[in-house]
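Researcher: We plan to redesign the surface later, but first we want a full-length starting point. Tokens attached.
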């Protein structure tokens, strides 16, 4: 079993609170085709926001045979192993039989999983994919039949599983540049002015080989370790030297401007291989796409409504990190979702839902959440009304 090799794994199967007489069925590992991701809905820093606490609650308050999940990933990344994989514990209703449950401690309506949790989730899912002989897919709780209304797990688990967590200085939200590229008009003094926590002396110290009075546009200087707070405000990029892009060169090749064979090789020099590869690609596709198409605000808003960017505040951070204007996207989302300010009450929304104005779940919940409303609260009101 791959998951048993994980360094953060802790076997608590025999120590967690269990019901004195009720027992879960063990269907065996071959039944498990799915992994279900949950959050605990308890704040991470709360006492008892751990496997032991959930086990006590599930047994003593809910009367279940034992804890509902196979695994709990706690704030520090510890993976508590709670049940044999084949156990049919309670976490996704009718899907319990074929789903292994992983719960991350935390209330992700208001907090974010820690880097340690993300990394443990990634490693655990990767291991379980190998360990479950009939593994098919990983889903969030609300992607299981009957749970579209559930605000669980509210994290972009797919993104977390796909990429190792970047820690420390390279974490996007807090990332700081190590270097700065000189732009027109820059001096050490102007740079220090723009960078909170950096002095001219810091820059001189970090760049012993650079003459401050002779900075060249495009020159890269070090910021040293003096930078603690924020990046320089980006200035509009000065026009670059007129070097042609691979894309342009490839088009020229196709237009016959670089000849063939050795003539082409010579004409393109060190760019030859890259350009030729692009030419081959272009000729293979009838309509070559631009390398990195930028999305419009309208496109992004639709993606947000389709839940492709997760929830706020992470959503806004992701959009910004990709260079988009998160506020503009949110305005468009609000417009599309019909929630121009002032905000609607839960009762108003419930009425609109009943009239079919928000569509059906799971898209309905996504739209409501995307528009800044509490879809679960609206759903509860709807259930009272109908
Ligand atoms: Zn859940």
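Model: Full-length starting sequence:
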């Amino acid at each position: 079993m791959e998951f048993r090799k994980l360094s953060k794994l802790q076997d608590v199967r025999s120590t967690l609170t269990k019901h004195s007489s009720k027992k879960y069925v063990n269907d065996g590992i071959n039944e498990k085709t799915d992994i279900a991701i949950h959050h605990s809905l308890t704040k991470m820093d709360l006492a008892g926001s751990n496997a032991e606490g959930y086990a006590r609650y599930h047994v003593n308050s809910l009367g279940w045979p034992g804890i509902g999940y196979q695994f709990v990933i706690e704030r520090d990344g510890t993976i508590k192993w709670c049940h044999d994989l084949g156990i049919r514990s309670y976490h996704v209703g009718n899907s319990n039989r074929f789903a292994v449950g992983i719960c991350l401690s935390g209330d992700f309506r208001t907090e974010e999983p820690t880097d340690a949790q993300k990394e443990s989730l990634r490693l655990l899912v990767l291991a379980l994919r190998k360990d479950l002989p009939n593994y098919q897919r990983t889903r969030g709780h609300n992607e299981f039949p009957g749970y579209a209304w559930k605000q669980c797990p509210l994290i972009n688990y797919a993104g977390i599983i796909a990429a190792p967590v970047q820690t420390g200085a390279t974490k996007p939200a807090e990332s700081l540049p190590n270097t700065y590229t000189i732009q027109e008009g820059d001096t050490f003094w102007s740079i220090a002015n723009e960078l909170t926590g950096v002095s001219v002396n810091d820059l001189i110290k970090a760049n012993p080989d650079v003459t401050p009075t002779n900075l060249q546009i495009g020159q890269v200087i070090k910021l040293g370790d003096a930078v603690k707070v924020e990046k320089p405000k980006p200035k509009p990029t000065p026009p670059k030297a007129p070097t042609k892009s691979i894309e342009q060169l490839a088009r020229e090749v196709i237009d016959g401007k670089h000849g063939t064979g050795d003539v082409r090789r010579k004409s393109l020099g060190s760019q030859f291989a890259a350009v030729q590869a692009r030419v081959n690609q272009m000729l293979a596709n009838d309509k070559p796409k631009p390398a990195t198409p930028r999305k419009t605000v309208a496109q992004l808003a639709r993606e947000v409504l389709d839940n492709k960017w997760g929830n706020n505040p992470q959503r806004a951070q992701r959009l910004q990190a990709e260079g988009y204007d998160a506020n503009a996207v949110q305005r468009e989302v609000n417009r599309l979702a019909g929630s121009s300010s002032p905000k609607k009450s839960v009762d108003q929304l419930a009425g609109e839902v009943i009239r079919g104005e928000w569509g059906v779940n799971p898209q309905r919940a996504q739209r409501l959440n995307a528009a800044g409303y509490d879809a679960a609260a609206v759903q509860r009101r709807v259930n009272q009304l109908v």
